[in-house]
Specification:
The complex is a heterotrimer of chains A (406), B (464) and C (75).
Chain A (H helix, E strand, L loop, with lengths): L5 H9 L8 H7 L4 E3 L5 E3 L2 H8 L4 E2 L27 H10 L10 H4 L1 H13 L6 E3 H6 L1 H11 L6 H14 L9 H25 L7 H7 L9 H32 L1 H9 L4 H11 L6 E6 L3 E3 L2 E3 L4 E4 L1 H4 L34 H18 L3 E3 L19 E4 L3
Parallel strand pairs in A: 2-8
Antiparallel strand pairs in A: 1-2, 3-5, 4-10, 5-8, 6-7, 9-10
Helix pairs in contact in A: 1-2, 6-8, 6-16, 8-12, 9-10, 10-12, 12-16, 14-16
Chain B lengths: L2 H11 L1 E5 L3 H12 L5 E6 L14 H4 L18 E4 L3 E5 L4 E4 L4 E3 L2 E4 L3 E3 L5 H4 L4 E2 L4 H12 L5 E4 L3 H12 L4 E5 L6 H18 L3 E4 L3 E6 L5 E6 L4 E3 L2 E4 L3 E3 L11 E2 L2 E3 L5 E3 L5 E7 L4 E5 L5 E3 L4 H15 L14 E6 L2 E7 L6 E8 L4 E8 L2 E8 L5 H9 L20 E2 L14 E4 L7 E4 L6
Helix pairs in contact in B: 2-8
Chain C lengths: L2 E3 L9 H5 L4 E4 L3 E4 L8 H10 L5 E3 L7 H4 L4
Antiparallel strand pairs in C: 1-4, 2-3
The chains are: A alpha+beta (406), B alpha/beta (464), C alpha+beta (75).
Chain lengths: 406, 464, 75
């Protein structure tokens, strides 16, 4: 056991200086698949142990099962299903799924394809005549935000208001009381309150007014599981709004960055757009938008990889590391869109598997195909690009690309 | 020649015969080619046409969504085989290494894979089984016939036997809003496979969906009208029921009769083999050139005290086929054992039922997660204090965890609580009716007194 | 096109039913029913569904019809 090394490895991973390339540090971390930390927590970084524990019913997503509650977590608020265990999790997720996918609304995502193409087309039209484009600000951010706003029933013109809240919130996810200014946490908590108040206001207008957006549907529909309370609807909408754009922004941006770093693959994709389907799966393995599940709790003693994690312990799951585990994937550090055996952890696994994964896939498939088709000789301005602060939802904050005629 | 040279020569231009051209046979053939076998490959099958998938036959096909001939199996690769279809195998000669077809043709081999599978157990009175409206479901022709009968809008369907297939067919009937009676000899549906506690849940599900479920009854006679159409069924309690369709779902019969005089350890429970899928002779000797896979293979599993277990499970057929094929073209040191735990699924009444391990190898069962009344739960099975199986109802995402518990002989009942553990979690006896796995009888007797003479021969086999 | 799903691996994530709803349908919350022979017009959706399966349990014919009757000649 390298208990003295790994805490330091984790600290280096979380440190902003390794944001552009955390992968060598993940390799170091994997030397101890289940690594105890100085603060009593555990870090899991290998594929087998990650996939085992994600299917372990003793792993809890409920903060109340941590023996040392986290400062960054507002215990008073109503949690969304991402922070709940069965049966509450299952009920809320089912209630939300009724309006988003199978079995009750199976054609929703595929039915959005035309709209998605139109939004993508419109954004790329805006590139015309511009030599320099920021893939993030000009494309990868506005695209999924437009989509999730429409889906939820949040006015697109309010985007400037919640953009700031979401940023502050995301930045506070990995708050570390030892190294971070208290302000980072307070900003996050305030942002959460503001966002909740804003969504609560929208919800109030939807009661008794059936509509096609998720907020209206959640406010008015009664299924076999009953109806969500207003607090539950706000918590759910809050989760979907944040997850629905923060992650897809990173997936699209990471995708474009990866393609620009692998010009041969970029050319292949331009010639054969159908290659985008396996290519996005490989992206989810190779440069996933969510790198870390920052905490889960041991509901009772959990044995994983021969280590017993005591009840109440905080467990950090390094998903992106697991997807680069050489014990599971052949040449894991190679970007290979033709990879056949690709059971990655890009969307997690088990009951908390990404709720919006199918939409994120379709958005990214359309986005990358169209960007590659229409950008003229794109060239990276800076490699590596500047990154967002978060090691959890990891991606570039800007991705400047120049069009040449080549 | 060294054995390595022999193996190379065999892989280059040996002769392999696969008896049974369904799922296991096809996947074995693909694996043989994948592993570089370039010799001659012959596929023998009693059904005409390409290999097809059977699970949809009792579900998607009967609902009318998918045509019966629309379940041909996708191919992983080309296999470049000679197909001898429409004639079953009639015998196997271990001395001359030949498969004899029912029409008398003899097909020589260097190595053979037996994957002859299972056929439906027919109704025990032949004249009654022949009535118009009496069905079994195993082949696509069966499924097509039953699909048509259901589409014609029968007044009532009688399903005889509430195992998985019978329950699935009852579920389809209710989905199509056809009145259905299910008659089961045991106290509840699925008890033979999953025990009394789950049986009760299954009974509850059937009744909630409007199935007229009769348990603890035996159908004694199927009655037809003057035109030879099925009209009425008689029960052992003296009652009758009128119906236009009867589906006989009394399980399967393993296709091993053709091996009766072959000297292989073949019988009603299947063909005994080692974990490498090599067939055993009646004497318990392992053969070098005869391999077995799929529903007919009876393979020891160390997790279950090395007992010989035969399974009619889809994934088992595929995995055994891959292991058998690999071993057919591999040297001793490179051979694989087939050690994976059985996994089974059934879709009925809108619920996904899955199991891992061998639930019949258990003495107690306990609900570990979820809610039985909601039909969303996981139950763990234990045998003498260790976990041996688990069953989930709409909770499949947790089963991988139980697979680990089984593989590591974890203590039963599982000591650590889960967040959604039922308050009254208490193990109950598993309670299987009839011949459980543990009680499978011998089908051979030992003859001879001298070590040089002592041999095993097949005993009279009693069908239960 | 031919499709088979290894339902012993399937855990009911329903990703396929999202992405190719005409070929893959959820029967209740977790049980998957599918069309083993979907029409070729669904090819793009079916390939997306197969790629998205978290268990990689969906097998699409790799011969794309090339095995045709030549290989299977009933005697």
């Amino acid at each position: 056991m390298t208990t003295t090394e790994t805490p330091d490895t984790l600290r280096r991973i979380l440190d902003y200086s390794s944001r552009a390339d955390p992968y060598p540090l993940y390799a170091e971390l994997r030397k101890t698949p289940v690594a105890p930390q100085e603060d009593g927590g555990y870090v899991i970084s290998t594929y087998r142990e990650l996939s085992d524990i994600l299917h372990n019913p003793h792993l809890s997503s409920d903060v109340r099962n941590l023996s040392h509650p986290m400062e960054s977590f507002d215990q008073a608020r109503t949690p969304s299903f991402i922070n709940l265990d069965p049966p509450a999790h299952d009920r809320l997720r089912r209630l939300a799924m009724r309006h988003f996918g199978p079995p009750h609304r199976p054609g929703l995502v595929t039915g959005m394809e035309g709209d998605l193409r139109a939004v993508v087309g419109g954004l790329i039209d805006g590139f015309e005549g511009r030599e320099r484009i920021d893939i993030v600000d000009d494309f990868a951010y506005p695209f999924p935000v437009t989509v999730i706003c429409h889906l939820l029933g949040v006015p697109r013109e309010d985007e400037p208001r919640f953009h700031g809240w979401v940023d502050a919130l995301i930045n506070s996810i990995d708050y570390d009381p030892k190294t971070d200014p208290k302000e980072k946490l307070e900003n996050g908590l305030q942002a959460r309150k503001d966002l909740q108040q804003y969504l609560g206001g929208l919800l109030e207008q939807r009661h008794g007014r059936p509509g096609d957006d998720l907020l209206s549907r959640l406010a008015n529909d009664d299924g076999p599981d009953g109806r969500m309370t207003d607090e539950e609807i706000v918590a759910t909408a809050n989760l979907l709004l944040i997850a629905g754009h923060e992650t897809t922004v990173n997936l699209i941006t990471n995708g474009m960055l990866t393609l620009l770093r692998h010009p041969h693959e970029l050319r292949r994709l331009r010639d054969r757009p159908d290659l985008v389907v396996p290519l996005v799966e490989e992206l989810l393995r190779y440069e996933p938008p969510v790198h870390i599940i920052p905490w889960r709790a041991a509901y009772s003693d959990i044995t994983v990889g021969g280590t017993v994690i005591p009840k109440g312990s905080r467990i950090m799951l390094m998903l992106a590391s697991g997807s680069r585990d050489p014990k599971r994937f052949h040449e894991p550090d190679r970007f290979d869109p033709d990879r056949r055996d690709n059971q990655h952890l890009g969307f997690g696994s088990g009951i908390h598997l990404c709720f919006g994964g199918p939409l994120a896939r379709l958005e990214t498939q359309i986005a990358l195909t169209e960007l590659v088709r229409r950008l003229q000789g794109p060239r990276l301005v800076a490699d590596p690009p500047p990154y967002r602060p978060s090691p959890v939802l990891r991606g570039p904050i800007h991705l400047h690309v120049e069009q040449t005629d080549g | 020649m060294t054995s390595a040279e022999n193996l190379r020569a065999f892989k280059r231009d040996g002769r392999i015969v696969v008896v049974g051209a369904s799922l296991a046979g096809l996947r074995a053939a693909e694996t043989l080619r994948d592993e570089g076998f370039t010799g001659s490959l012959t596929m023998i099958g009693d059904e005409l046409g390409e290999p097809y998938d059977r699970p949809p036959l009792s579900k998607q096909v009967l609902t009318g969504w998918v045509p019966a001939d629309g379940t041909k199996l996708p191919r992983r690769r080309e296999i470049d085989a000679e197909w001898l279809l429409g004639v079953p195998a009639g015998g196997l000669d271990l001395k001359t290494n030949q498969v004899r077809l029912a029409d008398g043709r003899e097909i020589p081999f260097d190595r053979v894979l037996i994957a002859t599978g299972v056929r439906a157990r027919p109704w025990f009175v032949e004249s009654e089984a022949a009535l118009d409206g009496v069905f079994v479901v195993r082949t696509r022709e069966h499924a097509e016939g039953l699909r048509r009968a259901l589409a014609a809008g029968p007044r009532r369907v009688l399903v005889i036997g509430a195992g998985f297939t019978g329950s699935e067919i009852a579920s389809v009937c209710r989905e199509r809003d056809i009145p259905v009676t299910v008659a089961e000899l045991a106290a509840a549906p699925l008890v033979g496979a999953l025990g009394a506690m789950i049986g009760e849940v299954a009974a509850d599900m059937q009744r909630a969906h409007g199935v007229d479920l009769k348990c603890g009854v035996k159908v004694t006679r199927l009655e037809g009208d003057a035109q030879g159409r099925f009209r009425r069924a008689h029960f052992d309690d003296g009652t009758t029921i009128d119906a236009d369709v009867a589906v006989v779902a009394l399980g399967g019969i393993r296709n091993t009769e053709w091996l009766r005089d072959s000297g292989l350890a073949a019988g009603v429970w299947g063909i005994a083999c080692d974990t490498g899928c090599r067939a055993l002779t009646l004497d318990g000797l392992i053969t070098d050139d005869i391999f077995v896979a799929g529903d007919v293979a009876r393979c020891p599993n160390p997790v279950y005290e090395y007992r010989l277990i035969s399974l009619e499970h889809w994934a088992n057929a595929v995995e055994q086929a891959e292991v058998a094929a690999h071993n057919m073209v591999s040297a001793q040191a490179d051979r694989w054992p087939h050690l994976s735990l059985p996994v089974f699924w059934s879709i009925q009444f809108g619920v996904n039922i899955k199991s891992v391990g061998v639930p019949t190898f258990a003495d107690e069962v306990v609900v570990t997660q979820g809610s039985v009344p909601d039909h969303r739960f996981v139950a763990a099975y234990g045998y003498r204090g260790r976990v041996t199986a688990a069953v989930s109802f709409d909770n499949a995402k947790w089963l991988d965890h139980y697979r680990q518990l089984i593989e590591t002989a974890a203590p039963f009942p599982p000591p650590c609580p889960t967040p959604d553990q039922p308050a009254d979690m208490k193990p109950v006896p598993v309670d299987f009716p009839g011949p459980a796995l543990l009680a499978q009888g011998a089908t051979v007797v030992v003859t001879g007194h001298d070590p040089g003479e002592r041999r095993v021969t097949a005993a009279q086999q009693h069908h239960r | 096109m031919r499709v088979v799903v290894d339902l012993s691996r399937c855990q009911g994530y329903a990703q396929c039913a999202f992405l190719a709803p005409d070929a893959f349908r959820m029967h209740g919350e977790e049980a998957l029913m599918y069309d083993p022979n979907p029409d070729d017009v669904q090819r793009e959706q079916v390939l997306r569904a197969a790629a998205a399966c978290p268990l990689q349990a969906i097998l699409v014919d790799r011969l794309e019809g090339r095995q045709a009757p030549a290989e299977v000649s009933p005697s």
